[in-house]
Amino acid sequence: MTDWLDxxxxxxxxxxxxxxxxxxxxxxIHAEGVYLTLANGKKLIDGMSSWWAAIHGYNHxxxxxxxxxxxxxxxxxxxxxxxxxxxVELAQLLLSIVPKGLSKIFFADSGSVAVEIALKxxxxxxxxxxxxxxNRFATVRSGYHGDTLGAMSVxxxxxxxxxxxxxxxxxxxxxPAPHCHPNQGLHVTDITALDRLLDQNHSHIAALILEPLxxxxxxxxxxxxxxxxxxxxxxxxxxxxxICDEIATGFxxxxxxxxxxxxPHFTPDILCLGKALxxxxxxxxxxxxxxxxxxxxxxxxxxxxxxxxxxxxxPLACAVAxxxxxxxxxxxxxxxVKAIESQLKTELKxxxxxxxxxxxxxxxxxxxxxxxxxxxxxxxxxCFVKQGVWVRPFNNLVYLMPPYIITAAQLSQxxxxxxxxxxxxx
Length: 426
Description:
Layout: H1 2-11, E1 28-32, E2 35-38, E3 43-46, H2 49-52, H3 61-71, H4 85-95, E4 102-108, H5 111-128, E5 136-140, H6 149-153, E6 173-175, H7 188-201, E7 205-210, E8 214-215, E9 221-222, H8 225-237, E10 241-245, E11 270-273, E12 285-290, H9 291-298, H10 315-329, H11 333-348, E13 357-363, E14 366-371, H12 377-386, E15 389-390, E16 397-400, H13 408-424
Parallel strand pairs: 3-15, 5-6, 5-7, 7-10, 10-11
Antiparallel strand pairs: 1-2, 2-3, 4-12, 8-9, 11-12, 13-14, 14-16
Helix pairs in contact: 3-10, 4-10, 5-9, 7-8, 11-13
């Protein structure tokens, strides 16, 4: 094991890591249920769902069977000029559960690419309508939409992870992040700021892109349903498309199947899905749109959508995604998420007594402890591993997004570990 770990340290670039002075990495040799087994035999309860994707836990028999069955016929085939049942059946399933009005699906290979596709669709939509000046985007601060260039351009340009690249990114329009909490009404100043931005710039704006109700890696912030509802109204008023990025929130994480579902009769023009789509087994994403968006693009010049990933609609990924969605729908996921939410609210509350803690907040199966200052990542990670849990903080945020199958006792070990490690490293 020493040899390959040494090779890792010398040659492998981990995400957001210093290649010259890397943080410790922990070698995983097995994953089962909610547990990650390290090479030294130590088991860790995963509080991250492998970056929010493994909602059913690991080594799930139904998902394993779906992969194995599909592997017997074909692992991959190009989607240009060809098609296959796994893609068609997954599309049929998705269209039966997403907000009504979404009817066309473009499969991609990662969440960031799904966002790139959404941005390109919005630009082509307005080009087809003879409005080439509508080629910029509006969003709100504290947002995160991915690590590729287009996606970075709609992330927070000042406080986000990508401020380094701001000079080379497409210039876009940013409204203040909404301040209303999920259980509160709308702050008038929040929506008037968005109204003003759209009023002044709508002739240049192709779409407004939002993470519905939960801002993920840009700050793990939650906001109220009324803001999302009013954003739809404003987009219609100012002739701006609405893109909803549900890569993090889709498939039950907030307590609804999609965060958009909190608003009755709500349909975005474009919807991005990823992460939990395959239950964490393979990389797959999807960008869905309405008939109007698709047919308008088809009326333009060129009449085709200008995108085509090599591994688009990979049969293995589509097969396991279909199985994962069925596992979710056939499970008591709403009760599970509600139980996780209730327990997180109770058991993370003591963290509020610690001097370095700024805020504790919970929404669905998401628990966040916000600190006044960034954590010492290496020390904090080591502490969590000693406590038998896997929690991956970033900046000044320590948070949990556990698999839905987690037991109350396992979740308590995670919440207690957060309190213990924060107290030790005050």
